[in-house]
TrEMBL record:
<feature type="region of interest" description="Disordered">
    <location>
        <begin position="37"/>
        <end position="56"/>
    </location>
</feature>
<feature type="compositionally biased region" description="Basic and acidic residues">
    <location>
        <begin position="46"/>
        <end position="56"/>
    </location>
</feature>
<dbReference type="Pfam" id="PF00248">
    <property type="entry name" value="Aldo_ket_red"/>
</dbReference>
<feature type="domain" description="NADP-dependent oxidoreductase">
    <location>
        <begin position="87"/>
        <end position="438"/>
    </location>
</feature>
<dbReference type="InterPro" id="IPR023210">
    <property type="entry name" value="NADP_OxRdtase_dom"/>
</dbReference>
<protein>
    <submittedName>
        <fullName>Uncharacterized protein LOC105059928 isoform X1</fullName>
    </submittedName>
</protein>
<dbReference type="InterPro" id="IPR036812">
    <property type="entry name" value="NAD(P)_OxRdtase_dom_sf"/>
</dbReference>
Length: 447
């Protein structure tokens, strides 16, 4: 494993320069950054304006796809003027656990070749079997993914990965998006089991991720879940009596601001947040003149969980925050496999790790008859229009004008290819109308 990535470069046999620059794998034939779509940069400079815009216009401003003859096939999205991500984000949660690391990296290779440049990580991921975790091996996924990308950067036989939009060269940057683990007394292998997400824990987590990933800085860094009490993972009502003493958001932003000023992170994001949390973070960031933008919110969004649309969508639209939609297939439930004969494959996540995922046991309750009916009716729509249930699910999420990227997981090549193909599917208004009818009958069975 080489050290910090700043300045590493190697000549490609064809003259293409391959360099690992400030934490990003860049394969390029030019020495310039791709400009944002017309007008985007100015909007980010004045990102706090209250001007409302047509959602369809919002999509065309921020997102574009490559055209025939280009190498990249997965659409791209500007999270910020200088932060381009693929609209599919490959989650690494199963790497080394639900499948082996060699299997995982073969999938990573195929995803990269197809144009996926966005990979989801978190310090809580262990790259271990379900039997347990330890301080020695925690966050192993970050180390292994980093090592894998190093090896790929040093492989001079790799072709140049690039694309064009309006005759403009697009560099392809591999973006690893780590997250700091929130308070959890159970995860004792992470910094001794953080009891709070205070400034010291945040700064230590950032430094540790930089070391594991061999980076000089992180492009996008997110808080995995709030320090304060919020209803999560299937809970739908806020209970004031459950409130407890928590770290002030001002302290958390102060730590993130220090990391930004030190050049350790560039942009910040939130995850599993509420409308209150998003607005509070944004207002306080303005008050302390944070030298960065809050650009992303990573929350669950799928056909069975559309809570984002009720209040968070308005917040994100006006604050210029993009949604990174996790669980676009509701932990695989929307594929229909768990309702097949025998309850689905034994190696499917909710079967293999039964009882392990609190989210799977609460939000995605397979014994809920309403959930089963909704899954069946969405599958019927997919069949009617010649799609697989998975393709319909992914395409629905990507159609949302505020979704920057859908975070998916795959343990098999055919699953990955199905998701890649779904990124090219356009759902007609007729299909959306049928989807909305099912949603009206079974609103958010997995909130």
């Amino acid at each position: 494993m080489m050290g910090a990535r700043q300045g590493f470069q190697r000549e490609h046999r064809t003259g293409t320069r391959i360099e690992i620059l400030y934490g990003a794998l860049v394969v390029t034939t030019g020495n310039f950054l791709p400009p944002p779509p017309r007008g985007l940069s100015n909007r980010y400079v004045q990102s706090r304006d209250s001007e409302s815009r047509d959602p369809t216009k919002y999509m065309s401003d921020f997102c574009y796809t490559t055209t025939r003859g280009e190498r990249m096939s997965v659409p791209l999205f500007h999270l910020a003027p200088d932060l381009i991500v693929s609209r599919l984000c490959f989650g690494t949660m199963t790497f080394g656990e639900q499948n082996s690391l060699p299997q995982s990296f073969r999938l990573l290779d195929e995803a990269f070749e197809a144009g996926v440049n966005f990979f989801d990580s978190a310090e809580m991921l262990t790259s271990l079997s379900v039997s347990g975790a330890s301080a020695k091996s925690y966050s192993g996924v970050e180390r292994e993914v980093s090592r894998s990308l190093d090896e790929r950067a040093e492989d001079t036989a790799r072709p140049c990965r690039c694309g064009y939009q309006d005759a403009t060269f697009i560099e392809v940057t591999v973006l690893l998006r780590p997250q700091v683990t929130g308070p959890s007394g159970q995860m004792t292998w992470i910094r001794g089991g953080p009891k709070s997400l205070d400034a010291n824990n945040i700064l230590e987590a950032i430094d540790n991720s930089l070391l594991r990933l061999s980076l000089d800085y992180i492009d996008l860094y997110q808080i995995h879940w709030p320090d304060r009490y919020v209803p999560m993972f299937g809970e739908t009502e806020y209970d004031p009596s459950r409130q407890y003493a928590s770290v002030a958001i001002e302290e958390q932003l102060g730590a993130l601001g220090k990391a930004v000023d030190a050049g350790k992170i560039r942009y910040i994001g939130l995850s599993n947040e509420t409308p209150y949390g998003v607005m509070k973070f944004n207002r306080l960031a303005e008050n302390i003149r944070l030298n960065s933008n809050l650009v992303s919110l990573q929350n669950s969004y799928n056909l069975l969980c559309r809570n984002f649309d009720s209040a968070l969508a308005e917040c994100c639209h006006h604050e210029r925050i993009s949604l990174l939609a996790y669980s676009p297939m509701a932990m695989g439930i929307l594929s229909g496999k768990y309702y097949s004969l025998g309850g689905g494959p034994s190696d499917a996540r909710l079967n293999l790790f039964r009882g392990r995922y609190s989210e799977g046991e609460s939000r995605y309750n397979l014994s809920n008859p309403i959930l089963k009916s909704a899954v069946q009716e969405y599958a019927d729509i997919a069949v009617k229009y010649g799609l697989s249930p998975a393709s319909l699910s992914i395409a629905f999420v990507l159609k949302h004008p505020l979704v920057a990227s859908a975070l998916f997981g795959a343990t098999k090549a055919w699953q990955l290819r199905e998701v890649l193909q779904a990124s090219k599917i356009h759902l007609t208004m007729e299909i959306i109308a049928e989807i909305n009818k099912v949603h009206a009958r079974y609103p958010n069975p997995c909130p």
